[in-house]
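Cross-check.
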Amino acid sequence: MSKEKPVFCVIGAGHGGMAMAAHLSILGFEVRLFNRTSERLKPIQIRRGIDVTGEITGFARIETATDNPEEALSGADVVMIAIPATGHRSIAAITAPFLKSDQYVVLNPGRTFGAIEFHQVLKSKDANTDVTIAETQTFLYASRVTGPGQVKIFRIKNSVPLATFQAHRIPGCLDVVRKAYPQFVPGDNIFKTSFNNIGAIFHPALVLLNAGWIEDQSDFEFYFQGASPSVSKILDKLDAERVAVAAALGIQAMTARDWLYFAYGAAGKTLRESMRANSGYHGILAPHQTEMRYVTEDIPCSIVPMSSLGRQMNIPTPVMDSIITLASAMHGRDYYAEGRTMEKMGIDKMDLKQLRLLGIGEMQG
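Predicted model, tokenized:
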């Protein structure tokens, strides 16, 4: 690896992966873009690049855009996974045969317990479990695909914590990743990044509680108009449960209001005021359907693992459980059964000490 220019493989050609691949290219890094299906890649392959607008503007040259994982991963120093967390398990299985010990795999973001799940899949495949697996607390960009081979970056966050499955590897991972992204800062451990997953608070509840407006195909600003005074009170209760479950593990999770200041520099006396002070949310419209990743990803991969750990630690999570129940009824699915439960990850028998050791990578479940 060149000390100055690590080679990046970006996995995922959706809203996040397109923004990340384009930005890295414009910064001067070699980028390989991998997507499981080739359809999204065709416009990029034809033009050999991505048009990016917004906070970053220009044409980002992408020489390698492929659905072949071996081609994408070969020679890459950093593997940036930018797909919905529901795909982490399958991507771990797809990439397992090709990952090398000197590579850094970063889940952008891990949502809740993403790094643990990724490690468990590699272990089940008898793959190289010495790969450094990292997860970020949130996604670096607010971005949207605007057309074939086109993406708009609304905002790049000021600071995003990153932690590795084995906590002692955080400095080494950051040394490499920060050559491109000085915004990444040390996270204490993967439990800290998992519980400071603020998308779990904002996304599912805002969709469910605005379902009528969303299904009416109305255009409204998701984080501004969607977070009405009454809806914001529910977000506050949901946030308090997240902080309480983290505290049972001895983790001091930041409140959603503190996170808005940390990530965006947005301040307010209440959570609603802080959300409205965040210029990065301006112009982001609500989805036009409820069956989308704010529910289908954030509930099974964020709310469910927090609720599941709450059950194990005897911490009540009634608002979280209500969100899971309502979404399951709305979509005719059992999101709890589909989600990252403690049982599914094989850590349901661990006591507090064992869980804390797992959180720093000293006990590899």
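The first strand starts at residue 8 and ends at 11. The chain has two domains: 8-195, 199-359. Passed to J.P. for a second look.
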